[in-house]
Amino acid sequence: MITLLSPARRTIAIALVVALQPWVVTDVAAQDFPNRTVTIVVPFPPAGGADTLARTLAPKLSALWGQTVVVENRPGASGRIGTEQVANAPADGHTLVMASTAAITEKNIARLAPVALVSAEAYVITVNAAVPINNVRELIAYAKANPGKLRFGSSGIGAASHLSGELFKAQAHVDLQHVPYKGTGQALTDLLGGQIELMFAPTQTVIPQLQSGRLKAIAVTGIRPLEALPNLPTVAASGLAGYQAQGWFGLLAPKTTPPAVVARLHDDVNKVLALPEVRKDLIAKGAEPGHQSAAEFGRFIGEEQAKWARLVKEAGIVME
Fold this sequence. Notes:
The chain contains 11 helices and 9 strands.
């Protein structure tokens, strides 16, 4: 004989199942995800590294999910305004942030869930074509002969493009003037126009201008040459031993996003990054595709924060 439960008893039974087996809810949420438009917030203006990567991923994720994926630029405070917007968004996976070094702080990381490392890459020291500097040794010599006269732009105070320059200043014992912008795209415009002389720039931001000869690349900030610029030496190998810096870009979601949804996002983003055409495009732009688990990405963020926090303290940098 089949016993039918009253509506009240059915409600209680469902509540007990959910309480005893919370994975039921998260699994259902993951199976149903996404069920509407997904927004990737870029906390910087258009044309920078984060924006380029978000717009590379968006159409591929849209095709994979059968849902619209939009990229929304929300610049300000070195990326922290847009990141705060995502931290406060509904925790259902439909709002993500393409963050980078400066956008993540000790305060907001506690309110965000790492999803996927999209790219961790060395930067390129890039100078205006009219500046009489062609390598790291010449840069150091020129800076020492002209203290405070060389201006380097960044995407904001505390960004990797800023901290890479501060690390160079500290290790080379030179005085460079930092000029912060709301994004690397704006800094690039002034570099081309001669308002600043150099940048520690994401490769994908400057590679078209390097290829056209409008800018000069003198060194890469990582421990090895880039596939996109194989003949460009590292800073360490060309005049400043021990120097190494990198930037990163990755997707994060609001902290309480169901773990199964985070796992779905992670897996799908990595499926896109593994597509031959996407991988080829990113490498050609100087972006090294990420390949970490979400947990590994979280640990990576912590390690990077600790490294740069020491530099910020030692250099007396006042964050916005």
